[in-house]
């Protein structure tokens, strides 16, 4: 039977030692030592994945290994940070060797693709729970943040948000009235289980985009974070939302619910000055990623009495169709304490 240390060595430490070494001191000591490049700062993010909340108990362990790291790399992408390495702490009900082999394979395949080294971690017995901390490197003056959007900025989104939410619905059988064929269902499920962190796009947008974040809890909910931190509002052209062919085959109300409030896409939402449209297109081409302009950052009326009395009032998002007609949409992003 595997012990804690043989488990770590067989499925994680040995694989980590075969890759590029970014840590000055990595696995095998009490702490990892990391030295970012001269003039750069460490970007650090932690995400926890809990069975039953973030993934199903019967999820393919290869997909789970991929996604556990992907959601963390997506945070680095949103900051325009170059991945350096990560730590992994997890609780496991029992040391199942087949599960561990598939899980570690999914994780290291993605780690090697982004030259991101496993630098340490911990494991224990318990209900399945994964916690990863990822480290990246970025110059402070080009880091993409949430509090730097400006009035007049274009609002952009990468990829086709909404596919992951449709995958969740397909697995749950939520939409019996919406005919989803087996090919579309498989596409949606892969979008949910194998999100692709937009690291290359984040790096290409440094010095081009103003504000950015990744879409983990739904476009409507996540964009609100930029608006809140930057003290601005937004106008969104709902008809400009980029939809996959599979999502476009669903009824319109489901398309909008998935694309605007679905979550789990791990695409990037960012703002940039209108003068940067060609530069944004060039960055997307360099990264091999589709980007779509979906709206505009608008100002808050800071001179109004209400704004003066409530400087931290919630921002306003105005939804419009292509003709500019306002739409009445009620959308709610994912909430980790109130999600169904």
From TrEMBL:
GO terms for biological process: thiamine biosynthetic process; thiamine diphosphate biosynthetic process. Keywords: ATP-binding, Kinase, Magnesium, Metal-binding, Nucleotide-binding, Thiamine biosynthesis, Transferase. Pathway: Cofactor biosynthesis; thiamine diphosphate biosynthesis; thiamine diphosphate from thiamine phosphate: step 1/1. Pfam families: AIRS (PF00586), AIRS_C (PF02769). Mg(2+) 3 binds at residues 30, 75, 214. Mg(2+) 1 binds at residues 46-47, 122. Residues 300-320 are annotated as: Disordered. The keyword Magnesium applies. It comes from the Bacteria. Mg(2+) 2 binds at residues 47, 75. ATP binds at residues 121-122, 146, 216. Its EC number is 2.7.4.16. InterPro entries: PurM-like_C_dom, PurM-like_C_sf, PurM-like_N, PurM-like_N_sf, ThiL-like. Residues 151-301 form the PurM-like C-terminal domain. GO terms for molecular function: ATP binding; magnesium ion binding; thiamine-phosphate kinase activity. Reaction mechanism of ThiL seems to utilize a direct, inline transfer of the gamma-phosphate of ATP to TMP rather than a phosphorylated enzyme intermediate. Catalyzes the ATP-dependent phosphorylation of thiamine-monophosphate (TMP) to form thiamine-pyrophosphate (TPP), the active form of vitamin B1. This is Thiamine-monophosphate kinase. It comes from Paraburkholderia bannensis. The lineage of its organism: Bacteria, Pseudomonadati, Pseudomonadota, Betaproteobacteria, Burkholderiales.
């Amino acid at each position: 039977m595997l012990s804690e240390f043989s488990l770590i060595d067989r499925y994680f430490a040995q694989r980590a030692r075969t890759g590029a070494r970014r840590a000055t001191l990595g696995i095998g000591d009490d702490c990892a030592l990391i030295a970012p490049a001269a003039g750069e700062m460490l970007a650090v993010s932690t995400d926890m994945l809990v069975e039953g909340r973030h993934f199903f108990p019967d999820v393919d362990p290869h997909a789970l290994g991929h996604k556990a790291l992907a959601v963390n790399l997506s945070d680095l992408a949103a900051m325009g940070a170059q991945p350096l390495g990560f730590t992994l702490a997890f609780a496991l009900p029992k040391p199942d060797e087949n599960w561990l082999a598939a899980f570690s394979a999914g994780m290291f395949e993605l780690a090697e693709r982004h030259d991101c080294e496993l630098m340490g971690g911990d494991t224990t017995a318990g209900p399945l729970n994964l916690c990863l901390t990822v480290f990246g490197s970025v110059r402070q003056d080009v880091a993409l943040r949430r509090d730097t959007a400006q009035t007049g900025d274009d609002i952009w989104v990468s990829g086709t948000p909404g596919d992951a939410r449709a995958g969740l619905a397909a697995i749950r059988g939520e939409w019996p009235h919406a005919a989803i064929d087996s090919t579309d269902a498989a596409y949606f499920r892969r979008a949910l289980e194998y999100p692709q962190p937009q690291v290359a796009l984040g790096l290409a947008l440094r010095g081009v985009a103003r504000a950015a974040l990744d879409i983990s809890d739904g476009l409507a909910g996540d964009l609100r974070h930029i608006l809140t931190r930057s003290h601005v509002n937004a106008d969104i052209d709902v008809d400009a939302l980029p939809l996959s062919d599979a999502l476009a085959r669903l009824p319109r109300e489901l398309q909008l619910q998935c694309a605007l409030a679905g979550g789990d896409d791990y695409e990037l939402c960012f703002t940039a000055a209108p003068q940067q449209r060609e530069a944004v297109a060039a960055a997307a081409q360099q990264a091999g990623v589709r980007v779509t302009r979906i709206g505009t950052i608008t100002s808050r009326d800071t001179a109004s009495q209400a704004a003066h009395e409530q400087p931290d009032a919630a921002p306003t998002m105005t939804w419009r169709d292509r003709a500019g007609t306002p739409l009445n949409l009620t959308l709610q992003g994912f909430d980790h304490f109130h999600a169904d």
